[in-house]
C-alpha cells in the first residue's frame, strides 16, 4: 500500500504553522479516514518525511523544503477548503496511475 502524506504544516524558521490562513480542520480524522481505505495516510510531514512515498500538497502552497525529494502530488487548495475528498482522490489516483 502506498504511503501518502498530506503536507498541511510548513516550517516558518523558528516554528511551524498551518498552510491555511484560518483553521478549516480541528482534527484531520475525517481526512485520514477517507483516504485510509486506499492508502497508508500521514498528516505529519515533519515526523514521517523519511517513511512516505508521496506528498499531497495543496496548490498553491507556501514553499517548504522537500528534504527527501519525495514526489509531490499537487491538489487544488480549494478542494481542501471544500473538504471535497472525492475530487482530491481523483488527482491523487491520476498521479499515481501515471507514476507506475
Structure description:
The protein is α/β, with parallel strands linked by helices and 100 residues long. The protein is built from four helices and six strands. The protein has helices at residues 29-35, 45-48, 77-82, 85-98; strands spanning 3-6, 9-11, 16-18, 40-42, 54-59, 72-76. β2 (9-11) and β3 (16-18) form a beta hairpin. The longest helix has 14 residues, at 85-98.
**Helical run tally:** 4
Strand content: 15-25%
Rounded to an integer in angstroms, the radius of gyration calculated over CA atoms is: 13 Å
Largest sheet: 4 strands, parallel
Distance between the termini: 13 Å
Largest beta sheet: strand ordering: 4-1-5-6
Which word captures the global form?
globular
In helices, the fraction of residues equals 25-40%
Uncertain residue segments? none
Query: What's the helix-strand series?
Result: EEEHEHEEHH
Quickly describe the structure.
This protein has 100 residues and is α/β, with parallel strands linked by helices. It is built from four helices and six strands; from the N terminus they run βββαβαββαα.
Q: Descriptors for this entry?
A:
100 residues, alpha/beta, 4-stranded parallel beta sheet, two-stranded antiparallel ribbon, 31% helix
Task: Describe the secondary-structure layout.
Elements: E1 3-6, E2 9-11, E3 16-18, H1 29-35, E4 40-42, H2 45-48, E5 54-59, E6 72-76, H3 77-82, H4 85-98
Parallel strand pairs: 1-4, 1-5, 5-6
Antiparallel strand pairs: 2-3
Amino acid at each position: 500500500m502506498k504511503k501518502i502524506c498530506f503536507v498541511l504544516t510548513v516550517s516558518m524558521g523558528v516554528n511551524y504553522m498551518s498552510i491555511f490562513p484560518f483553521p478549516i480542520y480541528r482534527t484531520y480524522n475525517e481526512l485520514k479516514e477517507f483516504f485510509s481505505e486506499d492508502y497508508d495516510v500521514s498528516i505529519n510531514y515533519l515526523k514521517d518525511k523519511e517513511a512516505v512515498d508521496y506528498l499531497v500538497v495543496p496548490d498553491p502552497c507556501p514553499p517548504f523544503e522537500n528534504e527527501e525529494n519525495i514526489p509531490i502530488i499537487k491538489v487544488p487548495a480549494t478542494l481542501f477548503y471544500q473538504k471535497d475528498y472525492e475530487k482530491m482522490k481523483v488527482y491523487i489516483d491520476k498521479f499515481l496511475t501515471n507514476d507506475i
